[in-house]
Amino acid sequence: ISQSIRYLFLDGIQLKVRRHWISKEALLCAIGITEDGKKEFLGFILGGRESTASWESLLLLLLQRGLSADQLKMVTVDGNAGLISALGSLLPGVTIQRCIVHKIRNIVGKCPRSLRGVVPAEAKLIFYATSQAEARERFKEFKTRWQKQLPQIVECIEKDLEELIAFYQFPYRHWAKIRSTNVIERAFKEFRRRIKVMETFPNELSCLRIMLALAKMLNENWEYKPIKDF
Questions:
Q1: Distance of CA 189 to CAs 9, 137, 183, 185, Å?
Q2: Which of 97, 124, 148, 172 is the most buried (most CB within 10 A)?
Q3: pLDDT tens for each residue of 24-55
Q4: Per-residue pLDDT for 21 more than 60?
Q5: Checking DSSP bridges between strand 22-34 and strand 39-46, what pairing results, if any?
C-alpha cells in the first residue's frame, strides 16, 4: 500500500457464496486516493456481515500492509454502524465523511411522494455550497423551512451534519471526489457486470480468487490514469 494514501473509501458489496447452503455475505472493500490523485484498490475481506469485528479485520489488514494513519486525511463511508465503531477504535484521529449520495437516498426514502422533487433538491444545496460556513447556513434555512412539516428529514441530516460537510476542510478541487463513496460504487458496478453470469460462487476460495483478479484489473487500469487536476 502506498504511503501517500490521503483519502480512504470503505464500503461492502453483497455476494452469494455456496457453503453447506447459499449464504449472502458482505465483501468489505477499501479504495484509496493518493496525494497525486492516483486510485488504488487496497484490499478486501469476505466478512459475513458488516459487523464491527469484520470492519476491524479489514482495517487491521490495511494498517499491517502499510496504510499510514498519520498520512491519511479522511475516510468516506456510508454510515454503517459497525464501520463507524471500527474506525473509532482503530483510526480514532481521522476525519470521517458520510457519503452525501447515501444521505440523499435516505431523504428520498423518508419524503412524501408529492415532495420528492423539492426536498432532496433543497437538501443537496447544503453539499454544493462554497464553504463549510455557507453549508451550515443553508442547513439552517432548510431546517427553518421543513422542521414542522418534515421533522424526521431535518433530524436525518442534523444528526450527521458535521460528518456530511467534513469534505469542505480540504482543497476545493478534491470535493467532488471525496464527498461520496462513488469511487467504490463504480468498482462494485464493474464487479457486478463481470460476475453477472455467476448466480452464486461455488465456494469461498473461488469467490476470493475472482474478486482478487478483478481488484488487480482495476489497479492496472488506474496505474497510469490519475484523477485529472487533482
A1: 15, 35, 10, 6
A2: 97
A3: 778 899 999 998 899 999 999 986 678 899 99
A4: no
A5: antiparallel
> Which residue in 200, 197, 193 sits closest to 218, CA to CA?
193
Q: Compute the half-sphere exposure of residue 137: CA atoms within 13 Å on the CB side of its CA.
A: 7
Q: Which SS3 state, helix, strand or coil, does residue 46 take?
A: strand
User: For the chain, what percent of residues have pLDDT higher than 90?
Assistant: 70
What is residue 21's three-state secondary structure? coil
Burial class (CB in 10 A: 0-12, 13-18, 19+), 20: exposed
For residue 198, give the C-alpha cell. Answer: 455467476
Judge whether residue 76 has pLDDT over 70: yes
Alpha helices per DSSP H over the chain: 52-64, 81-90, 100-110, 119-124, 132-146, 151-158, 161-164, 175-178, 182-195, 204-222
Give the N- to C-terminal CA distance of the chain in Å, as an integer.
20
Say how many C-beta atoms besides its own lie within 10 A of residue 125's C-beta: 14
Q: What amino acid occupies position 63?
A: L
Strands 74-77 and 39-46: unpaired
Place of cell 423539492: 118
Residue 105: pLDDT band by 50, 70, 90 thresholds?
Answer: very high
pLDDT one-digit tens code per residue, 186-217: 998 888 887 765 666 666 677 788 888 888 99
